[in-house]
Amino acid sequence: MHADLSRSTFRPERHYSAVVAQQGRVQLDADLNEQTAIQLHQARSLAADLIGPHGGPRYAAGFRIEYVGGKHEIDTLLIHGGRYYVDGILCDADRPAAGVPVTDEDSEESVPEPPAHWTYWDQPDGFRDPEKSGDRLPSPAQTPFVVYLNVWERSVTAAEDPALREVALGAAMPDTAARAKVVWQVLPLSLAALEIEETDPSKDVVRAAFTRWAQRQSAPSARLAARSERPDHADEDPCLVKPDARYRGPENQLYRVEVHEGGEAKDATFKWSRENGSVVFPVDELDGTWVRLASLGHDDKLDLDVGDHVEFVDTAYASRLEPLPLLRVEELDLPGRRVRLSAEPAPGVGRLAHLNPYLRRWDHRGGPKRKGRTTALRGGAVPVTEGEWLPLEDGVEVYFAKGGAYRTGDHWIVPARTATGSVEWPVDAARRPLLQGPAGIDRHFAPLALIKGEGSAVDLRLAFGPLGSSMPPADEAALAAEEQAHREELAAEDPPHGRSQTTAEAEAAAEGDN
């Protein structure tokens, strides 16, 4: 999550059930966020345990798929409304109701009702482009193919959704809380990708093959470790922090190391930010290489400077998880709130205002130095080098394990603290940093349909019924037992001759002794 956080403390293996606030203590964003994460983990784990890997309510299951092709200009899918759960995560395919505008009393203008379904091309988080051949559905000659649901979460701030900003605070104030958004995308998948050789596979064959494919896609193989080492220039400014500190930064930071270009190590690149990638600037206008910003940073630490690398993206590309070249800031026009970039942003990105374009700042300036030489950037990002410690800044170093496969968007976060002069990272008994998988992105998948042709879609969804049901009628034996229990209760409340049961038993015992 690209947000201005102090750190992220939720660890499911610790089995914490709640965050307990104490009086007179400082409350941190990490505490509130961990409570939210605990509740989400519990709710989604329970839903997954009861439902299974995926499923929808029997009478309100969403994501029924229809394939529409042939006679139309371009093939598409109809995605019908309802709810569906993937690994316990709720996905809602219902289309929002259209608002009713206020019109003149004499006007009889009618508001057309939107369709009750989404299509493959207008699904809210898919952002498929008909001009891109890779986005189009397989041709009739490539049928059958599988349609599946891809589910993940990403952060949204006021830079993307201005409605999150409280305007009463004024434009000079920073935004408040960010949001986590569930992204669902309906996508096609060939049988070859599922390693299915049959031309007419059964439901069970497709589901089993899809499960194997999803497990491979969900399990990241890249691993990273972080540490702090006293840099060579540590004695140049001893007043910053204590002399023996290994982390030499003047402030607490939350470093984010994020995969930019995925693939094998030889092709992969990464970028890093000392602010968890949270420094963003909404864009008002793009004119060639010049970008007019809606606002600048609130101080020198959160502003732009010549030499900074930025990512020019919008809501569509943030949801597509596709890397774009990182651009360098070449010139600043502070009075005009404009910056000149090293190249014009990629075509089709940031040109539509309703997609809320913005710049995201990253803090690397060049690749790590080896043998006195600086590694050249590739596409504005740092090439991944496995098996050796790579310096970021101020003594912070990261290490990529050998043999990893990298996915765009996967990331690790590294808290650095001036109080300890070190970074917070798991270590073993010998204080050696431990390799860790990415903190995200967690990807979830579910099969929806096997498309065999026009009007022929085999439903691969699963359904569950409600747990509640009518109370069964009682039989004669149960009724007699209830009546007997009722009589015994009345006898205990009103004993004969006004004496309590205990008193009667005591008197009977005394008479027996005599």
Secondary structure: elements and pairs:
Elements: H1 29-51, E1 54-57, E2 65-68, E3 76-80, E4 83-86, E5 89-92, E6 117-119, E7 145-156, E8 179-190, H2 203-218, E9 224-228, E10 253-259, E11 263-264, E12 269-273, E13 280-287, E14 290-293, E15 309-313, H3 315-320, E16 327-333, E17 338-341, E18 358-362, E19 369-370, E20 373-374, E21 382-383, E22 389-393, E23 396-400, E24 405-406, E25 411-417, E26 422-423, E27 444-453, E28 456-459, E29 463-464, H4 476-493, H5 501-513
Parallel strand pairs: 1-29
Antiparallel strand pairs: 1-4, 2-3, 3-6, 4-5, 7-8, 7-27, 9-23, 10-12, 10-25, 11-24, 12-21, 13-14, 13-18, 14-17, 15-16, 15-18, 16-17, 19-20, 22-23, 25-26, 27-28
Structure summarized in a few sentences:
The protein is an alpha+beta fold and 514 residues long.
Largest sheet: 6 strands, antiparallel, barrel
Beta fraction: 25-35%
First-to-last CA distance: 86 Å
Structural class category: alpha+beta
3D architecture notes:
- The protein is of the alpha+beta class.
- The protein is built from 5 helices and 29 strands.
- The protein has helices at 29-51, 203-218, 315-320, 476-493, 501-513; strands at 54-57, 65-68, 76-80, 83-86, 89-92, 117-119, 145-156, 179-190, 224-228, 253-259, 263-264, 269-273, 280-287, 290-293, 309-313, 327-333, 338-341, 358-362, 369-370, 373-374, 382-383, 389-393, 396-400, 405-406, 411-417, 422-423, 444-453, 456-459, 463-464.
- A hairpin with a 2-residue loop joins strand 4 (83-86) and strand 5.
- The N and C termini lie far apart (86 Å).
